[in-house]
Amino acid sequence: MSLAYEFRTNAPSAAIMSANIGDIGDLLRRTGVPMNFGKDEEVYGQDEEADLVYRVIDGAVRTTRVLSDGRRQIGDFYLKGDIFGLETGPRHRFSAEAVRNSQILVVKASALKSAGADLERLDHMTTRRELDRALEHVLLLGRKTAHERVASFLLDLVHKAKAPIIDLPMGRQDIADYLGLTIETVSRMLSLLQSNRIVSFCATRQFRVINLDGLMDLAEQG
Amino acid sequence: MSLAYEFRTNAPSAAIMSANIGDIGDLLRRTGVPMNFGKDEEVYGQDEEADLVYRVIDGAVRTTRVLSDGRRQIGDFYLKGDIFGLETGPRHRFSAEAVRNSQILVVKASALKSAGADLERLDHMTTRRELDRALEHVLLLGRKTAHERVASFLLDLVHKAKAPIIDLPMGRQDIADYLGLTIETVSRMLSLLQSNRIVSFCATRQFRVINLDGLMDLAEQG
DNA sequence: CGCTTTATTGAGGGCGGTCAAAGAGCGTGG
DNA sequence: CCACGCTCTTTGACCGCCCTCAATAAAGCG
To answer: Which chain A residues in 4-43 lie under 8 Å from chain B, judged by CB atoms?
Structure first.
């Protein structure tokens, strides 16, 4: 167990964290194997043992859970650079699939550990981040309108991307299953946001923000 | 040693975990201070620093988040024996309030650590458990009907309680805000479950299960 | 008991779902 | 380069689940 681990850091520990993640990222690259996954291909299944760590090199991944009658819920999306698969305990609660053709770095957790990585710390940080996002997701699904959900979703992508033009790696059905809506409602809300001059779609899966304040207001971040 | 407060877990590695938690629980009792909170009294606020650990001695606690216009979402409930406040990172994302008059053990995390507790492990396990529950909550809010949500909620209580007659520590409004519904819909679904001979309410806040298989079917656990 | 809070039940409305069809995007092959 | 076929997306019309509003009933609590 690493003595370097601190339970509660008072200062915003972004610098420390990114430094650690940088090291881990380097280690991941050296220890892991890059693999290619085709669109909709499964990375891991629900209830599978979770002894691998994954990092998106290129593409996008979704975690999903399906009810017996086919209703599907997406837990989260993972984009380039994101680490996943480490966050759900000994067994996966959701399965993971490639949203589109993707390259993913696959690392054995045990190998990482023996290579000297502070896996526990990485795991802890990742889990915490997942929990934060899951709770935000709960608020969105429990109490936001369709309009607000779609606005929140786009705003989240904006924060991740930090570029003027933002790509949507996933289709409308995936967005719907993330937001607890139907594909038609998502489409309608996107059209509405566009006609209200909040965002502008240059292509079906590419947009830019016209009115950021308006988007933030609609997202109702609480 | 009297294990008056058992840590609740559905996780696979229950034996290992409860052994560790048993030790921690003992340490908590010796290091912590029991405090009384009145109904609806705040235990901690949103965005407050999180350097305390809490354990419900008696009563019940809810975590809540409120949108600017008053819409409220409850993150989770914590009942007798449950540990909370440790799960949301350096700052709380939700605030915590007593559902009804409650006695809560309050422990300084730093004190726990210097007393030799494996706080890291406790923190990690708690966070992981929270994430599991949050993801289940996401599925419920995103893809289940009102009928299924209420059934899932009751089933969850049944699993926690393991007693023939189960108490509801919270009112209908709290249930509604947990399930992303209105108080009227919750009330209607409870009436429906009762007229379908799935459960039976001996009092407004006390029920027993008549048809467990039926309840599980309705809960659509995926 | 009487007062307040909480829960139930009913009637009606609206947001988002369902069903359907047309349009756009896109790779493949002529 | 366009035609073709497939998938994905958009848009429209209608419907139903759940919300809203309202009134009553029950439960706490002094």
So the answer is: 5, 7-10, 13
